[in-house]
Amino acid sequence: MSDNHGFSDVEVNVEASVEAKSAVPDKDGDTEEITNKRKASDDLLYKIDDVPPWYTCCFLGLQHYLTMFGSTVSIPFILCPLLCVREDDPARGYIISTIFFVSGLVTLLQSTFGCRLPIIQGGTFSFLVPTIAILSLPELQCPTGLMDGTSEFSSEEKEEIWHIRMREIQGAICVASIFQLVIGYTGLIGLMLRYITPLTITPSVTMIGVSLFGAASHNCEGNWGVAILTIVVMTLCSQYLRNITIPLPLWKDGKMTISPVPVFKLFPILITILVMWGFCAILTVSGAISEDNGARTDRNLELVYKAAWFRFPYPFQWGVPTVSAAGVFGMVAGVLASAIESVGDYYACARLSGAPPPPVHAINRGIGTEGLGCILAGLWGTGNGTTSYSENIGAIGVTKVGSRRVIQWGAAIMLGFGMFSKFGSCFLTIPTPIVGGIFCVMFGMIAAVGLSNLQFVDLNSTRNLFVLGFSIFFSLVLPQWMKQNPGLVLTGSDKVDQILKVLLETSMFVGGFLGFFLDNTIPGTPEERGLIAWNAQHGVNDSDEGAEFQAKCYDLPLGMDYLRNQKWAQYVPFLPTFKKNK
Q1: CB 3.0 to 4.6 Å from 1: which of 109, 193, 317, 341, for a disulfide?
Q2: What is the pTM of this model?
Q3: Which of 477, 533, 501 minimizes the C-alpha distance to 207?
Q4: Tell me, what's the pLDDT at 425?
């Protein structure tokens, strides 16, 4: 999921969870299970190893870019005010372009050398919750009069103010992501999944959506009428019209055909943005709304004119990242939540793209590569990390195109648009009430994705109800109390005080920690806790008995002949030659 994820995540994640369980071969029915899976994938236009013509790849890659567009572009609308970047600052467009550029770079790494599945990497909302806690520290508050323009600051001063905050987030992401890189490439992710249960993940992910309600409300307040209309349009597209198809020209079997395409199911966020953006533009041109109305589309139009046409994002463009213990510890919560959710995404993606269930080495390499991607995001200065995008997994199921090459073309398109900075600046004209309306739906769905993990556990158990209810409720109470009483945590060490403040103000950490501690210490049967179905989904109990069915699609693109002749390669958890029983 991406906690970042778009509106279609719930359908993808909940259904994919069930599909993933059947995708993991059991000891008694490996052959039958994989045979059935192959039959199910026969209707794919292009399977994972297929290479469509370049023009087909270009078109389908653009489609994947558009699918991840809505979720990705919404992240800077929360991030920039926290960084003290004003609405009239062209830096907002540069941050958007940087996010697209890094998303393309990491997608290319993941699909080529990582898990090798056709899976898009992009920004994640999991990182926003600890980011808010870090930037809430007294020393990182925005200077008085900066954001409302009541005080005068030079352009150099404005730049340095948000650069300092960005470098703090960059450093926290880079160092915290080393943790994800290590648990992936060393194979520790499998061991951790034995203790990170549904009742650990549920409160943690649920609090991502719940704790961001303030950002949604703040963006809506510019014009609640437009925000509510945005919610209505998005609900229509994603729910009521999701099964409506529109005949569109598609290239299939070497010729152009007219085929029905479920455009509302594929692009609910994009359609909503375009429709409401156009509606607000009409209101602006006609003079139906006042000059100070938040729904106007011309408030930041001057930034589009001033923005450079092309700008190449590069590492350390905002300066060398700074590292603080408080930032790192707070960000680990987001890193861990992102990594665990990605494991389920791998199984869902493999099933929909016609690939066998990912072997342990592919999962290890995928999680490790995501960690590497987050480090790159920190070095480039996106202010966010990267994770697997469930929306694009859903797009594979709808379009029946699971080719890895298509995703690689999509990555190239993201790289191109990331360097086209004028394009990124155009999004600054999207009225904030539209963004707020989308947030109301998306954050609600993220909370629902967290709750969907309860499908594995026994909800008739008072034990489970206690763990769930207390973890969620107390993760609302404690962070709120911490924010209202910032000076009451005094250990005698400023560093320790900072760490505790960030951790205890991060609701997803509080909820996840309580769920982890209570579920692993209060007695309960594996069935009651949902461990059997949970382990089946994440492949914790898989063995090498189905190895003969593993396709070569998970092999590295080069060096395989050398690796197969090296005994040491059997002991490296992220290499295709890894033997689990070793």
Answers
A1: 341
A2: 0.78
A3: 477
A4: 79
Q: CA-CA distance, 362 to 21, in Å (whole number)? A: 17
Place of tokens 């540069």: 94
At which residue do the structure tokens 């990594």 appear?
339
Torsion of CA 218, 221, 223, 229, to 10 degrees: 70
DSSP, collapsed to helix, strand or coil, labels residue 258 as strand
Strand pairing report for 121-122 and 246-252? unpaired
Best-predicted range by mean pLDDT (34-38, 130-134, 152-156, 361-365): 361-365
Q: How far apart, in whole angstroms, are the C-alpha atoms of residue 284 and residue 280?
A: 6
Angstrom distance (rounded) from CA 362 to CA 429: 41
Long-range contacts of 485-491 (CB under 8 A, 24+ apart): 486/138
For position 30, what pLDDT does the model report?
A: 47
SS (H, E, C) 325-344: HHHHHHHHHHHHHHHHHHHH
The answer to whether residue 297 scores a pLDDT higher than 60 is yes
Instruction: Provide the pLDDT confidence category of residue 441 given band limits of 50, 70 and 90.
Output: confident
Q: What is the DSSP letter of 146?
A: S
| CA-CA-CA-CA torsion sign (41, 17, 526, 361) | positive
> Can you tell me the distance from the alpha carbon of 494 to that of 475, in angstroms, rounded to the nearest whole number?
24
pLDDT score, position 343: 81
**181 is written with which tokens?**
């890189």
Greatest distance between any 2 Cα atoms in the chain:
74
Please name the residue ranges forming H helices in 400-525: 404-419, 421-426, 432-452, 462-484, 494-505, 507-521
Going 226 to 228 to 234 to 236, the CA torsion angle's sign is negative
Identity of the residue numbered 133: A
The whole-angstrom separation of Cα 419 and Cα 429 is 19
Phi, psi dihedral angles at 387 (to 5 degrees): -155, 175
Q: How do residues 320-353 score in pLDDT, each as one tens digit? A: 999 988 889 888 888 887 887 788 788 778 877 8
The three-class DSSP label of residue 46 is strand
